[in-house]
Each structure stands twice: as C-alpha cells, then as structure tokens.
Amino acid sequence: MTENPCQLAGLRILVGRARHQASSLSSALRDLGAEVFEIPFIEIRKPRSYKPLDRALRNIESYDWLILTSVNAVDAIWERLKKLRFSNNKFAHLKIAAIGPATADAIKEHGQKFQVVPKEYIAESVVKSLRNRVKGKRVLLARAKVARDVIPQELRKLGAHVDVVEAYETVIPQSSRKRLNEALKSKTRRPQLITFTSSSTVRNFTALLKGSAQRGNLKQLDGILFASIGPITSATLRQLGLRVDIEAELYTIPGLVAAIASAASAL
Question: Which of 55, 188, 191, 249 has the smallest CB count inside 10 Å?
Fold first, then answer.
C-alpha cells in the first residue's frame, strides 16, 4: 500500500504516549493528514532509588548478558554510567539483547553493539531468541518497576541466573485526567481514534477515566476506534473491556502508523 499525505485527512487522533516520546508517532500521523493531539497516559520517572541499578553496574563484569526492553531502560543505564563515571569499556565483554529496533537504535546511539533483536518485539520472542544461549549464564534485566515477568521466569527455567533491576518507573500523569475527560465530552475535540503503545498506556487510560471502563460504563467511548501496537497491548485492552479495532502487524511505531493508515483506507 502506497502512503499519501492525505491518507488520514479528517481523522482526529489522540496519542497517549509519554510526553517526551509522543513526537515520533504524532509527526508520522500528521504527515498523513491526521489531526493529532496529545494527552499523555503515562509518565516516565526515575526510580525511588538507584542503588540496585548502580550496584549491578558496578558489578557488570560478572554478567554475561544484558537485556533491555525499552528505550527508557537504555537511557537510564547510560545516564547512570555517566553519573558513575564509567565508560562503555565496562560493557566490552557483555552480550546485549534489545527487544526491538527502537531499543537497538538507542543502544547504537550510545556507541554500543547488540547481539540479539528478536523477530517479534515482545518478551516471549526475547526468550525464544536466547533459548540456547543462556544456560548457566548470568543475565541482567533492566526494566520498569512494574513489568511482565515473562523474561526472568522463562530464562530461569532455561538455567540462567537472572537479576532484575528497576531502571525507571511509569506513573499516571494526574494532570491528564481533566484534559482526557474534557476531550471525550467535547464536540470539536473528541477523538475518533486513540492509540495505545503499551499495556501501561491502556491501564492508565482506564484509570484516568476514573474507573468508568472497569465498571462497564463505556458509553463515553462509543464511536471511538482503538489502535494497538501489538498483541500484548491488545490483550490488555480486551482484559479491561475495551475493543481492539486496529492492531499493528509490526510491533513498532511505524508498524502502528501503517496499520492505522491501512484501516483508514477501508473506512
């Protein structure tokens, strides 16, 4: 399918990514003619303590693998390296696994190489990619405070010694509550489509609605399409009683944009 700059003309889209990460998705949608506005459903914050992460970085020579499942984790790792005055040479012996191309690109931007990027950009595929490579190895997983436990649980079953450290935490931006509810009630700003780029954005979205979705009162969402970046995010939408109207085949921001464009052409 060939994209054109008017493909999404007249479509009002709400992007709910964290404020500092929304621009890439918003820009791509605007380039296709969509009317885009942003209300963050998620806010990235530093962990309450860096001690566990710093301890792991000071002992990084004892690890064989480092697994990074988001750009936020990459940024946190290298911020701490700088703070601790460590160089990239500390990672020279390490093998690094990135969950997807955006994370891999962030690793490259810091001058570091990676060995693994799975074909599908989800935790299960990370495990599959490492299945024959981690037995007896020490693995460091740096991630958000709250995250799925698929990677550590499954790698331990494969004989790996896995340490999980908190690199950042995600919270609900309370300032978005009023803006979201006002947008849903507005005749001129009510979105026709809302994007979800992680399970956290879905959970926080329903929380920002003051629990109305969980109670089954979905009338304020009638007529709005929901676009998901991939199957894990879609599963969370369904668990919380929301539809999945669009799901990306490639679990990336470009994949999500392509899925939205394809669906719009069929409307």
Answer: 188
